[in-house]
What does this fold into?
Amino acid sequence: MLKKVLVLADGDDPRQPALRRAVECVADGGEIEILAVVYEPMLEGYLGNKEIYEPLRRRVLDERRERAAALARAVESEGVRGASKAVWSHPMHAAVAAEVGAGADLVVATPANLHQGGGSRGGGLTHGDWQVVTTCGAPLLLVKSDGRAPYRSIVAAVDPFHARAKPARLDGEILRRAAALQRRTRAALAAVHCYVPPEYFGGALTRLAPSDPRLVEARLDAVRALCAEAGVAADAAKVVAGVPHAVLTDMQKRGEADLIVMGALARGRFAELVLGNTAERVLHYGEGDVLVVPPPRV
It folds into this structure.
């Protein structure tokens, strides 16, 4: 499934986390392409004259092209076909979407790679970073770990009751993507449905006791049905009571979710995917890797 992986890489370190994860996830016989998106507003021109800085832009772009090529050679030393490309583009998400349109199955990046200029930065994702996540057009693996340890546990976050407006087919796509990575990495796979129990809103709102097994069993049956449709073992189905983003980030902290696979909800008025509140919070505050899966194309 992951025949072509696009990596948004920066610098010249062949051991950077995004590259490590790309090598781990790419299919046998697949290709990893290093994409360097270059932009420096100070080199755009002076008083409307773009020609004056053209030699400098060309030099900067050539330097980044060579660094990307060096990373591609490092990928090839791992036994994977490598390719590289450097483009001068702003905003960044437009260049990424264009490359995905050329056939990438997965985009891999660290938070620092999502914004032009690179480097470490606190404070979470910026508006520009979110634009890359929501417009790239392919599943995007956001790498927050150091990438050194292989994935041991993959959690597919599903919502069979579509309580958060997810398209009906999205859960199946989440599970299929998670299962493909599980087969590739040999990690354990869990299909987790988080639900907020009635007592969270007040015990008087329901006649059923919070511990009534009928509530849990109905949800578990629904998750098992999703697993069956996606070809995932029924024992992967899990139901956990709690606020979804808190449950998932706690699993990351306990080492029970090296990778969380989540879905983007739908297309907004500007052709961007809309991330639900749960996905936004896990991406923003979580400590582990997250794969954001767009809805399947109709």
Notes: The domain at 153-293 is CATH 3.40.50.620 (Rossmann fold). The beta strands are 4-8, 31-38, 81-88, 106-109, 140-142, 153-157, 188-195, 237-241, 259-263, 289-293. The longest strand covers residues 31-38. DSSP finds eight helices and ten strands in the chain.
